[in-house]
Amino acid sequence: MEFFIISVIKIVIVLLIILTVVANLVYVERKVSAAIQNRIGPNRVGPWGLLQSPADVLKLFIKEDIVPSTANPFIHSLAPVISISVALVTFAVVPFGGSVELFGHQVKLMIADVNIGVLYILALTSLGVYGVTLSGWSSNNKYSLLGGLRAAAQLISYELSLGLSIIGVVMISGSLELDRIVEMQSGFQWNAFLTPIGFITFIVASFAETNRLPFDLPEAEPELVGGYHTEYSGMKFGTFFLAEYANMITASSLIVTLFLGGWQFPFLETFGLPAMMATVVQVLTFVTKVAFVLFFFIWIRWTIPRFRYDQLMNLGWKVMLPLALVNLVITGGLILAGLF
Amino acid sequence: MLTEFGRVLIFFIIGAVFVAGGLVTAWLIRPNRPYPSKLTTYECGEVPIGDTRVRFNIRFYVIALIFLIFDVEVVFLFPWALVYSQLGWFAFVEMVIFIVILFVGYAYVWRKGDLDWDRPAPKIPTFEKGVGVREDHLLEEQVVGS
To answer: How many domains are there within chain A?
Structure first.
């Protein structure tokens, strides 16, 4: 029973943190994009525009929900829920700190210590495509259908490189547990340095999987209006919005966990800090790393223009896939040469 | 004793409650004033023409098929990667052979042009002398006729 309560408390805290971060991430993105484009950005609601996100959420709550009369209402409502659940549930296996002793219990700072964490992530990220495709199909709008189809083709093209670049990490650490993968990256033995090609292919594939620019072809405002969410309004649109940013957070956490050392602070054990303080430092390290990767996501979005669709597919199939396979062979050779 | 996947289930349920809470609250407080033209789909502000659920490009289907083959490859690679460092050179050679076999298939797909999204216009087979002249003649007649 105590385990149950501890789990529930952990889950509620993590969910609240994610949802708060999502709301503030929208604000940060608008501010950063304003800075990049030499504008001011939101500055009217609250000090420095800090209350812009709550105001936006409130607006979404009281907006009318319009479902086209030719749409399929059930699937139309189901699609955003699929998107958000996949984005949130993937976070369940991400370790955000070492283990800590609380009230006589050893509590691991991750929600579920699944022993096949990597497979779990791959399985769930591939479910994400259903939310986008079903919303595109159910709206009965031509733009949405095109957006949904594009999303399906894009996601499956990039999922291969995603999976193949993770295999390099699995080879080095010899484990599918994310906790173990993080522990292997102590000091500066980050997988990003050990398999640089895998790191780059994983980042590019993550951008494509989260539908972020330069790969946001499913939305592509100039040509497809809003793509798969053209016919969404009110809180259902808000849910898609939430899902996009939650996906970004999950993708950043995965990049940090798999390639950038997770919660490891390099050479922390040499300082001899008390256990509680060391854990706080670890969690802060994780948060800082994730914040850097999130900033990188935003930075890329406002710097690089969108790909054309045939360029996107060519990059995925003719560059990323061979590159990921070559990376496997190189990593295998280096491990046998005893370099890791 | 709660298993790890049980925790994932609880996480899913609590997350679903959060999301459903948002959607239900919005459903309770939002206005609802539909009228027919508001409920049409968006098509540049015009009245939509025709049905959306039409046949679409076969290219999407071919990509899905190729994906299936390579995804199975990824699945095969996972158990191998897990025990790689214990197996040594034997595993490396085995894997290189496996990847090379798949690479041949990959090269074939590439050569056949199934990876090209922007496929060049199909080459119309040329006819032997004599036959070709007759076909050209027919074509010209059609153009004149239309």
So the answer is: 1
